[in-house]
């Protein structure tokens, strides 16, 4: 059995503030006996302030893949596995990126593959989904819009991931904001995608998200841990905090796949180009 936590928290442009908040969340998770902590997208540097017309002069700070701040998070993680998002600088390109670390260093990386229209102005796109081994099991990462596409989670599950870490800075609708967050279209979709991606691949999914506001963006929160049957094991709703669930990942994934094994019962020969 391990404890998995998904965080709902606010992060902005002040990197010192962000690092202090990450340290507090890691400390809280450690006190709760957590082995895997998933933090939101853009936990270092914050997300875009305007998704429709990003200001090129007000983008999140871009950090190299070996930036000392990332190494400090790894040191803070210690025995824990921690996933967090940041803006990665790679030559002339910037990526919306995620890194998975422990006290032993970097365990895995991901660059967001699917970019909504506004993000394409600010970031280059990643080009792959790959699972990797960690002390808590084989894990894969997705960022924000990646989880809208079933192929993202399916590719990671086919690569052996039994845990999916979904890091988001997912806002309420920017075109048709509802008077109450519970009625917002994006709130419904965020929850739907989390549960569907877990159930269709029969994996455990930890979904972290930002809270609060940045510029014209209002973030949903709704961090949660979802079991391989699509059942929500823990959630924060719209509040900041940690959704913590204790689960035997291997046993629960095996139980879900015992009779109906979605991955082994695939028929790629019947899917044509949709493989």
UniProtKB/TrEMBL annotation:
GO terms for biological process: putrescine biosynthetic process from arginine. PROSITE patterns: CN_HYDROLASE. It holds the Pfam family CN_hydrolase. Residues 2-249 form the CN hydrolase domain. Keywords: Hydrolase. This is Carbon-nitrogen hydrolase family protein. Gene3D superfamilies: Carbon-nitrogen hydrolase. The keyword Nucleus does not apply. It comes from the Bacteria. Coiled coil: none annotated. One of its GO terms (molecular function) is N-carbamoylputrescine amidase activity. The keyword Transferase does not apply. InterPro entries: Aliph_Amidase/BUP, C-N_Hydrolase, C-N_Hydrolase_sf. CDD domains: nitrilase (cd07197).
